[in-house]
Every structure is written in C-alpha cells, then in structure tokens.
Amino acid sequence: MGAIPVEVAGPGRCLVRLPRSATRRGAVAYCKLLRTVKPDRIWGGWAFEGELLSPGGTVPEAEIGEAGLLLECAGAQPGGRGHIRAPTLYILWRYDRAGGRWRELARTAAANRDWTVDLGPIARRELEPPRPVLVYPEGVADRVLATLDKELGLLRREAQCLVVRAVYDRFAARMAAG
Description:
single chain, five-stranded antiparallel beta sheet, 3 helices
C-alpha cells in the first residue's frame, strides 16, 4: 500500500491509502491514526486516542503525523461458532515516508479486550519521542577492549585463549539474559 499522488487543493498534495486487511465483506472494521495511548485505560479501544478513519480510504500525507502510527481493526476472523466468539484481528502499522507505504509492526487477535495488552505497550513505545543516547558505545567498547588487551598481554598464548573463551561465555550469557 503506497502513497497515491493526486492534485486536490493544489499541486504536490499527496494522499496515502490506508490498509484494509479485513477478509470478510461487511466486517466491522476501522482504522485509527494514533496520537497517544493512555496506560490508565489499558482495557479496550478507549486507551488508543486518535482520528477514526475508514480502512482502504485515503488520508493526506501531511495529516499522518510524525509518529505515523495506525491501529487497524480488521474484523472478526474465522473460527467463532455459537457461544464461542470469533477473535477480532488488530494490526499496528507504521507509515514509512521514504518508501511511501505502511509497514506492519505487530498483530494480534482476541475475542475480548486482551488485544490491548498486546498492542498497547508497543504503540506507547513507538509514540514516545526518541531518547537521547547518554552513552557512547564505541568509546566504552574501546576502553573495555584496551583493558582486556592489557590483561591478555601478561599471559601465554594458551592462557589467553582460555580467558577469551571465558569472557565470550560471560558476554553471551549476559546478552541472552537481556
């Protein structure tokens, strides 16, 4: 899905087609161009604040906003029968201005409000302004390696290999732990 340039209200205005993932005709579906997500209203769609739009419709690119985040309710999915409700599909999209298209960030399906627990934290994080980098990773890495080189310089080759393996194992364990 990409940007569709049209001349409405002057040259250079660009309309962007919204995603439409609903598979059933007449499905209860909507898109919401997100401005914010309220953590105190985590249960239900009321936590997601923004402009309601029709799936497959168009919106001026200038109105998409800096975050370019869109929540799509794509309607009930196959599987419901009788008292067992069909899950409803929700997709979180980010608009890629450079590519002129929507890119899927996350999706979930639920027959109740559980989808907000899945998508709420992701949407909140995506809507946050970028945080400044307070650490310069290259400088820290250089200092760590200089210390390691200093320690390794005191050892024989066989001992150096043992130390490097031990350091690798500890770094790998820290990375795996998150």
